[in-house]
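Internal tracking record. Fields below are filled automatically when a chain is submitted to the structure queue. Please do not edit lines marked as system-generated. If the sequence contains nonstandard residues, flag them in the REMARKS field before resubmitting.
Queue: standard
Priority: normal
Entity type: single polypeptide chain
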Amino acid sequence: MNNADLLSSGDYADAVATAARAAAAYYGDGTTTLGDDEYDALARAIAAYEQAHPEEVLAESPTGKVAGGAAEGDVPHSVPMLSLDNVFSGEELADWAASLERRLGWAPAGWCVEPKLDGLAVAARYEAGALRRVLTRGNGLAGEDITHTAGDVLGLPARLAEPVDVELRGEVLLTRAQFELANEIRTAHGAVPFANPRNGAAGTLRAKDRPYRIELTFFAYDAVGLGEESTHSALLERLAALGANTAASTAAAPLRCGTVEEVQRRVEEIAGMRAALPFGIDGVVVKADDAADQAQAGSGSRAPRWAVARKLAAEHKVTRLLGVEWAVGRTGVIAPRAVLEPVVIDGVTVSFATLHNPADIERRGLMLGDRVFVYRAGDVIPRVEAPLVEERTGDEQPIVFPTACPRCGEAIDTGEQRWRCVRGRNCQLVASIIYAAGRDQLDIEGLGSTRAVQLVEAGLVRDLADVFTLTREQLLSLERMGATSTDNLLAAIAAARTRPLNRVLCALGVRGTGRSMSRRIAAHFGSMAAIRAADAGTLAAVEGIGPEKARLVVSELAELSALLDRLAELGVGTRVTEPVLPVPAPVPAPVADAAGVAQAPAGGPLAGEAVVVTGSMTGPLAALSRNEVNELIERAGGKASSSVSKRTTLLVAGEKAGSKRAKAEELGVRVLGPEEFAALVADHLLVAV
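SYSTEM-GENERATED OUTPUT FOLLOWS
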């Protein structure tokens, strides 16, 4: 079935009206009634119907019009500011390239491939190098004057490096960080959060007389009046030299390709980087690079014939919020989860999304029955961003928050943003025991979910300390527990007594800590007694904790006081570090300073390094869990981290490293393979324990 078959005559009129409303909302104030994929599919169906029924084309149809015919402007452009035609697959891209070659009569000398930034197109006019006016694209012939926002746009210099008369053209957008900050600012002022970064940029650029400022970012991709440049690639270099921000500073930098096959590979590379980029993209732009080829191909009324946008599946989709479920985690935290009308995002069917906490629900102003924007990038858990308030019918209902723990019925502590059952870990004792026995914590093989349920239901385990008091007779009394299984479990429990301090601290599941933070705390204090004696001010001195998290950790440890006393009596958590290879020398244990605080050994091959590990490990690292690799990093003097940032100095990239490698390369971070890294830290590798 082709697209034309999807619409009847009546459907066509409805589709045109729907597309017109969606375009008017977006180009009017940045809101929208449709997601990207929905609008694109609708526009394609309209165009297909019109091609089959040219006598029925409606005047308000978006086909062939800049901005779907919805945008207007009162300041004429010096040269028409066109849109781009779209293709939606590699096959369509190849067909477009072949049609351009036929139009030219020869193969283009080269192609420029660059990210299609997901923002709002603008034109910035400079006189003698000074910024004078900023316009939206509008209807392509005239735009709206938005000069009042220029001071809030990074990358759009007030003065260029040369005193030239030129009009820079580019995209203004909200980066992911700017989007989060913008919504914090808006909700603090009682405004509804932006649905997504693209809509936020459109709404911000048109806003006037707000009591707050929102920062945006400009990326230049073209210019009018700058003079002749032989290629588009050379033009972009010239724009950067003038001081304008361009995509050349990112991992998805524009690249000249010689063949369509190279273009297709670069498109896939940029698509693979998408989740790691600090800004949103909705496609990849492919252009004939040489100015001579562009001039020969010319332009239509809406779009140039020498450029096309290879659209990618939308990261933001619109669906309906059907309900909210409340789950209790292993520490007793009560977490809301959105139940959604299933929607496909990046090839994955999404039926649930995170809502973080009750305060997040209130901040976003969500109601049951709302049409909502849902976001998913790469392997990030889907989340609900904002409701489409303008789509409400009046049938929406408030989200009802629980008044008692949904698992055990006890009271809820609402003192923190994340609500918690007053029974804490005891509400989910089985989950707490399973987590503590995990490989990266106490590594008690044989104590999985089935066995944990048996022990708790039999009354043999009421907290983690009880695990270390289990007897052979008690275990043999359990169903399907034979002599061999019993002896193996007891041996694993005995080995768990000797786990280092950081593993025991992590096994406790203290809120505000995890594997990395547990290692830092253990290295800083050197003993459980010192950790328990620390106040919030002392704990805040550990890098990455901060005052708020420190207060939470102190509170958690006080709550666990009785359990910690029992573990100490049982000799659990007394070892500070894991054993290391004896050759050439073991790593010295932390030495306490005059204040009794343990100091990590100085030096090591990773001294001063901030290290991130990603991908599948091979060679000597293949047998280690990610947590064990991170422990290895810190024993070798480095600092392990889970995300690449400007502070990262080394990335260990295994197979299928993906977006983290792309970001590291963008930032100029040194990259090593697993075998190279293993050789670097060979003296600190673990022996089997």
